[in-house]
Design goal:
The chain is largely without helices or strands. Helices cover about 10% and strands about 10% of the residues. It has one domain.
């Protein structure tokens, strides 16, 4: 697999601003996911592919574009 294609992080996080005058407790860390296609300009040659049956289940032919959702808040 292409090393450039895997050199990104899909999970990003940020800390929302909490005013000192806000009566609510701080929210803490918030997480969001970014899709892989944001980091790949043109489709690289010879990308690894799922089998047709597996590609239908996962919704994409290429593993690099498969985005399994894992809840970051779940412990």
């Amino acid at each position: 697999m292409n090393d450039n294609a895997q050199s990104f992080t899909r999970v990003k996080s940020y800390q929302p601003y909490h005013s000192p005058y806000d009566p609510c407790p701080p929210i803490g860390q918030k997480y969001y996911f970014t899709p892989a296609h944001l980091y790949i300009g043109f489709q690289p040659l010879n990308l690894e592919q799922f089998s047709p049956k597996e590609a239908l289940k996962k919704g994409t032919l290429w593993p690099i574009f498969y985005d399994y959702y894992k809840n970051p808040y779940k412990k």
